[in-house]
């Protein structure tokens, strides 16, 4: 029997104590453990809900940003097109102005050249008339009398004036 008591004390009593302790621990800690687990579960569910809401908000913001990006790309393309057409119009205007200016300068140069040629012709005629007048007057002084010289000079001067007026 002694062995039986040792077996009882050595094996069964520690298991019985453990069973009693475990039963009492479960009885007393069941409600707080369930409450803690429920609170922890509620916390996780709350975090998951917040994460879902944040994800949905982020997706909404992403969609909005993509819409804005597309709108900006469209606006940028429109601005580029407007800038290109404006630059083309400015280029055409500058080219037309340059052509107009070149034609004006050519016409002005032609007018100036013609005026210079006319001035040179008139100057040459005056020089010729003066040279002829001088030569004739010198010749007449030598060969004619004073009254005949005056009459001849007047007639030749009138002829030259007539020629000069015709040209």
List keywords for this structure.
167 residues, mainly alpha, 2 helices, 98% helix, 0% strand, rod-shaped
SSE arrangement:
Layout lengths: L1 H142 L2 H21 L1
Helix pairs in contact: 1-2
Largest sheet: none
Unreliable residue stretches: none
Q: Total number of β-strand segments? A: 0
> What structural class do the secondary elements suggest?
mainly alpha
Describe the structure.
With 167 residues, the protein is an all-alpha fold. It has one domain. 98% of the residues lie in helices and 0% in strands. The protein has 2 helices and no strands. The radius of gyration is 63 Å and the shape is rod-shaped.
Short description:
The protein is an all-alpha fold.
């Amino acid at each position: 029997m002694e062995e039986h008591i040792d077996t009882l004390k050595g094996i069964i009593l520690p298991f019985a104590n453990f069973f009693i302790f475990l039963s009492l621990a479960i009885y007393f800690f069941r409600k707080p453990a369930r409450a803690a687990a429920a609170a922890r579960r509620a916390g996780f569910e709350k975090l998951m809900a917040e994460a879902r809401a944040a994800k949905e908000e982020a997706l909404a913001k992403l969609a909005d940003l993509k819409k804005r990006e597309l709108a900006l790309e469209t606006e940028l393309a429109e601005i580029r097109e407007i800038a290109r057409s404006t630059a083309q119009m400015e280029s055409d205007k500058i080219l037309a102005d340059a052509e107009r200016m070149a034609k004006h300068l050519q016409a002005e140069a032609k007018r100036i050249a013609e005026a210079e040629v006319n001035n040179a012709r008139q100057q040459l005629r005056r020089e010729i008339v003066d040279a002829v007048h001088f030569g004739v007057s010198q010749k007449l002084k030598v060969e004619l009398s004073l009254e005949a010289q005056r009459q001849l000079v007047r007639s030749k001067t009138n002829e030259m004036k007539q020629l000069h007026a015709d040209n």
